[in-house]
Structure formats: C-alpha cells, structure tokens
Amino acid sequence: MLKKTPILPFVLTTCLFALWGFANDITNPLVKAFGTIFNQSQTISTFVQVAFYGGYCLMAIPAAIFIKKFTYKKGLLVGLALYGLGCLAFIPAAQFGLFQSFLVAYFVMTCGLSFLETSANPYILAMGEEDTSTQRLNLAQSFNPIGSITGAYIATNFILGKMNKLSTAERAALPEEKFEAIKMADLEIIKNPYVIIGVVLTIMFLLFLVIKMPEYKEKDTGKGLDLRDTFKRLFKNLRYREGVIAQAFYVGAQITMWTFIVQYGTEVFMAQGLDELAAAEKSSGLQIYALVLFASSRFVFTYLMKFTTPGFLLMVLAIIACLLLIPVILVGGMIGMYAIIAISGCMSLMFPTIYGIALKGVGDDAKLGAAGLVAAIGGGALIPLIQANIIDNANVKLSFVVPLVCFLVIVIYGRRSYTTFKS
Q: In the chain, which end has fewer C-beta atoms inside a 10 angstrom radius, N or C?
C-alpha cells in the first residue's frame, strides 16, 4: 500500500493523526469534569463538544478553499499554528475562571484541527496509488488511537485523578469563596496538559516548515477556483453525498460513546459504593481499555480489508455495534459497560472507511470533497447534545438509543457501498 509513497512525509503526516486523537480524547472525559467544577447540568457541560466539533464544522470549507488554492503543506502549517494557539489559550482561560473562556479556547484549537484533518486525510490518499488509498488511510488512521489513548490516560490520571475529591452536591453546599478557590485550583490542573501539547505543536510546526514535502498541487486550468461547479459535482455524486451523511452520524456515535461512558460508568460504580469522583475516575480509566481495543482493531480490520470490500466490512461492524447496544440500554451494570467497551472495536474501521469510500473517484474535487467530510464532524457537536438532554431528563441507559440510531444509518451506507457503489 506504500508503493510510490514518499516515506518521511508519510510518517510526519501520520504523526498528526495521533496529535488530533490526543485532543479528542483528553477532552471527552472533561465534559463530566466541567459539570462538577462549575456545578452545571450535563446539557450545558456538553457545550464543550459543541465548541470542539463546531470548530471542525465551521472551518472545514475555508480550510478546503485554502488548500485548494495553495498546498496541503501550507494547510498543515496553518492547522498546527491554530491548534497550538488554542492550547496555549488555556493559560488565560484558567486565569479568567469562566466556562465560556474554555469554550473559546476549544473553538480556536479545533479550527486548527479542521485544517489538519482537511489537509492530512486527502494528502495521505494522494501519497501513492489510488487502488490502495483506502488501505493507506486506514494505516495512517491506525496511529490516531495512540494519541487517543494518551489523551484519555492523561485525563484520567493527571486531571480527574488530581482534581478535588468533593462531589457536585458537596461543592454546591460550600460557601462561595471556598467554592471559587476549589474551582480555580481544578482549572489549573486542566490547563497544564494543554500547555504541554502546545509546546509539542510548536516543534511540529517547525519540522513541517523546514522539511520538504510533496505538493500534489492541482494543475492550473486557467479557470481559477470554481467552487460552484465543484460542489455541484460533489452534490450529484450519490456515493459522496451519502458518505457525508454517514460520517456525520458516525462521528456523533463515536463522541457519544466516548463522552458518556463516564456518566454511564459513574452510575454503575456509585451503585457499587464508590463516591461520585472516584466512580467518574474509574469510568474514565475503563475508557482507556476501549481505546486500546479501538487501536488494535484498526490494524486487524485494515488487514482483513485485503479479503473483502470496505463497504461489506463496514456494514457488518455497524450491525455488531447495534446488537451490543441492546444490553447497554436494557441491562446496564457491568454487562452494559463491557458492551460499550466492545463497541469501540467495531468503530475502529468506520471513519477512514467512510472517508475513503466517499472520496473514491472524485479526482481533483478531493480537496473540497474532504471539506464536506470534515464538516460532517459537526455531527459530534449536535448529536451529543441530544443524548445529554435525555440524561438530564430521563436516564443514562435510555440515552444510548441515540448512538443506536447513528449505527443504523451506517449499516445502510455500508450495504449501499458494496451493493450500489461496488466499494
């Protein structure tokens, strides 16, 4: 799959997949943490995900226009700069002590992530032969969970593990001055890992700046940047259009599974006698197992793709995910927790496979086509809000109906991929 692929640029670009995986999965457990720190509902706290994935969605098209006009490398440089700036913005955010200031930092950070994903995914597809492009993207995406596992580990051990142990109810009963002191101390704990990754991003920016990268710049046709015709062609492409929809539902499912595993587990472990913060910390620790399964499964399914079509494998894994959600919703307890972890194995293949299927054969429209698929990450901004509202107004178990619906959409796209689109 790496025939005719420039190895050093491929390796450097693949490292970026781990860097945005880190951002995703250090953030997911913090929805629960911000709820505790600021004494607010899950619906309000989930605006962390709205800001995070909203940045992806809103910046995707501008990012695509930028890289279409210039090069993938320049798109990656802009992405690294914005990602790093957003991370360093946690310094003033922690000093202000306002939930909204963290939302701004997350939004800036993910504007950079949008540039990175809009650039890096099609860049990897372009680095070699088209027949192996989906496998090559799956290989690069296999390193995304390394960053995810690192992010979840740091969130569990260096954020949740170091926060003040008082529960939400106990904090609410404190005098205002004491509550504020504990809040500000916890926000400093949240800030530190983001500042460190901001320094790492500065180093990566300098590496990309000085190392020569292949451009794969489109040929100048003399017609300039024709957005209208490009998007018109993409919209008429049924494989692509349905892929954007499937991707939005997949990202929504992934974020709900990995965000609300903490809320689900907190109820399970509190029923076993743990206090609220210890239960949340243990749940976040179990998420690491889910991410390890996600990472290892990606390598396995990338290999299995040699023997079957991507669409068929996508459909089978989405069906298994739906079946595993039944005990999550109806049984609960540790059986439900183990089922949530197992679903991560099913999800490992989905994002890059949908991405590869949707972009197959779009040719020079790939840069703007990639933007639509990155904008679909906006599903991670909206769908978790629906689940959070169900948690606040009903219960955690019932809320997992939301990812069930998402996986059913992916089942349909997977089937159409290998029957209608022959992928």
A: N
User: What gap in Å lies between CA 96 and CA 92, rounded to an integer?
Assistant: 6
**Cβ atoms 352, 317 nearer than 8 A:** no
Q: What is the DSSP letter of 173?
A: T
CA–CA separation, 322 vs 343, rounded Å?
A: 9
The predicted model scores a pTM of: 0.84
- Predicted local confidence at residue 312, as pLDDT: 94
Judged against a pLDDT cut of 60, whether residue 223 lies above it is answered with no
Q: pLDDT for 288-314, tens place per residue?
A: 899 889 888 878 887 888 888 899 999
Terminal C-alpha separation, the chain: 17
Report how far apart, in Å, the C-alpha atoms of 118 and of each of 26, 36, 109, 155, 176 are.
21, 34, 14, 26, 45
How is the chain split into domains, by residue range? 7-214+227-419
The CATH number of domain 7-214+227-419, selected from 1.10.150.530, 3.40.50.2300, 3.40.50.2000, 1.20.1250.20? 1.20.1250.20
H helices present in 331-378, as ranges: 333-347, 350-359, 366-375
Place of tokens 């100048």: 220
Average pLDDT over residues 139-160: 87
Return the structure tokens found at 116: 């990175």
Q: Which two tokens stand for residue 112?
A: 């950079």
Distance separating alpha carbons of residues 84 and 92, to the nearest angstrom: 14
